[in-house]
Amino acid sequence: TSASRPSPEPTRTTCGYCGVGCSLDVVTAGGKVTAVLPARDGPVNQGHACVKGRFAHGYLTSPERLTRPLLRRDGRLEPVGWDEALAQVARGLRAAVDAGGPDAVAAISSARATNEENYLVQKFMRVVIGTNNVDNCSRLCHSPSAAGLTASLGLPGGTDTFDDVEKADCLLVVGANPVEAHPVVGARLLGRVLHGAKLVVADPRAVGLALHADVHLRPRPGTNVALFHGLAHVLLAEGLADEEFLRERVVGLPELTELLADYPPQRVADITGVPAADLVAAARLYGRARRPAILYGLGVTEHLHGTDGVRSLTNLAILRGAVGTDRGYGVNPLRGQNNVQGASDMGALPDFLPGYGRVSDPAARSRAEAVWGVPVPGRPGLRIPAMFAAARAGDLRALWVIGEDVCATDPDANRVARALDACPLVVCNELFLSETARHADVVLPVASWLEKDGSFVNFDRRFQRVRPAVSPPGAARSDFDVVHAVAAVMGVDLGCATPADALAECGRVAPVFAGLSHDRLDRESAVPWPCPDPGRPGEATLYAKRFATPDGRAHLAATPYLPPGEQPDDDYPLVLVTGRRWAHYNSGSMTRRGGNLELDPVDFLDLHPDDATRYDVRDGAHVTVESRHGRACLIARVGEQTATGQVFCSFHFPTSGVNRLTSDHADTVTSCPEYKVTAVRVASSS
Ligand code: SF4
């Protein structure tokens, strides 16, 4: 929707829901938000916004907002003042270090937090605690993108600015539902199709864009790598690869050619369920386009072999010479959360410092040490799943969860809850008494994205400013202030007193961000990284001269297809895929507390009419869904959007227990959970 701007002067900020990064003008009266308008001059959204960014702000004044710190006493969470809460956190962290050393403490940071907050969290863990045990929620979504794109092309981000998609004449959209999950991007993609671009959609479900596709490939969940190899096989077999590009800028072609001999269309059809003729038609559309584009989502990454999926998908762009040239719109992940790119960019990762210097690299460590004035540990820390395992084993003695509802959104939620209960100190920064907060020892009330200052990085690597439109309620404070306050109680001044100072300091640790500052973002609205020089623009399109790999070349990946962690069987005959819906966002803690609940009031289990008949489930009936890991209760919605043998639901309603169903199978490279393949059975419960 587009809208005109009323007076008085609204606050310009960046949407805190999905990774598109829409610029929004927030209108207030009497200290309350009265309207959120899409900015006509927004660099990405150009006057548009979706139902989440535009209307889901009622949560700000929800009576359920946390306004005072809570401390667990005699098993109950009781309101206390900040001094008492901070003293308890500091005491607990010190006790954990005394008992088990610095590695007995861990922190989970978040895409919900600004860049500057993520920078401060990782600095706190490395400088105050002395551990690399810090991770962020990208572990659960796009960590395979970071690993796969880095291995193939050199940098852990999308390759092009989204503006260039306007020049694409063939869109290959894989494992993504942008019409619902990234509506502003979905609309722009649809616009391209209406202006003549070809569209290939690869997704097991009949997602919104599939209705407009020239070819819709519906692979069985977990068979992406075979699908992408099948497409690559056709590109090579039909002479659609860019031989000059391959000769001059690429390594790995002989190994890939040998592997692809095993993936002719008919064999791929047998593995994936995609008809061979459709596979060939899709490969020809992508292979013959003048400027083909690849955009993908979590349907590529959230698999046992998610990194292999990213790499084998990237192979297609490399084979076509459609990345690092003006002959294509590269390979671009549609990031789910607002700042999932930035949280990793800022070094809230157990193996990387800000700007992706490896903690194991002495040169990267010494750059950080020169700025921070303390030694940085060289051993990589724990990833999120390993933090929970360490807590269950008694090795992790304190966990600080910042803006994540891990008991609702992480897989095998029963095991996550057991891990939190086993950990002597759990601290939780939250807006509401979330599922995770209910297991915490200290709950700290914090500001939301409409109440704080900083910046986010969107899905095409653009830094944009976040500005407070209203004040947080009661005694709630920004995560930035809270981290500073805990450090101060522990006797450490973290420096960088303001978010602007933090971004400036980050630029001294990480050369790729050295050209960024709040002043510059205020002047220019959006600046992409890499941006090493304040006097030059950031790099919107990557790899024009060389790839960022050590040898400067793109690396084709010859990774064989391997099956997913779970397969349907007689006991659990259906495959559950989870994902997002239009009106809600992630655990739904914000979108369910406002008008969007009326748009989408309950979670449904989508299933095909054939399966509804087979399992005696009526449309609208209450159903019990069981996996090997747990049980959930949902309402059946029968329709053909979901293929036979599969069921689909969102994770926006934690009380339905969806993530009690999902398994702890995870990407073999990055530990990203396999949310997209869980074997389940369904029975009517009404
Ligand atoms: Fe834009 Fe995404 Fe926010 Fe919607 S949720 S307004 S598409 S950034």
From TrEMBL:
Signal peptide: none
EC number: 1.17.1.9
4Fe-4S Mo/W bis-MGD-type domain span: 8-64
Top-rank taxon: Bacteria
Molecular-function GO terms, alphabetical: formate dehydrogenase (NAD+) activity
Keyword set, alphabetical order: 2Fe-2S, 4Fe-4S, Iron, Iron-sulfur, Metal-binding, Oxidoreductase, Quinone, Repeat, Ubiquinone
The protein's required cofactors: [2Fe-2S] cluster
Function (record text): NDH-1 shuttles electrons from NADH, via FMN and iron-sulfur (Fe-S) centers, to quinones in the respiratory chain. The immediate electron acceptor for the enzyme in this species is believed to be ubiquinone. Couples the redox reaction to proton translocation (for every two electrons transferred, four hydrogen ions are translocated across the cytoplasmic membrane), and thus conserves the redox energy in a proton gradient.
Assigned protein family: In the C-terminal section; belongs to the prokaryotic molybdopterin-containing oxidoreductase family.
Protein name in UniProt: Formate dehydrogenase subunit alpha
Organism from which the protein derives: Streptomyces lutosisoli
Gene designation: fdhF
Residues of the full protein shown: 209 to 894 of 894
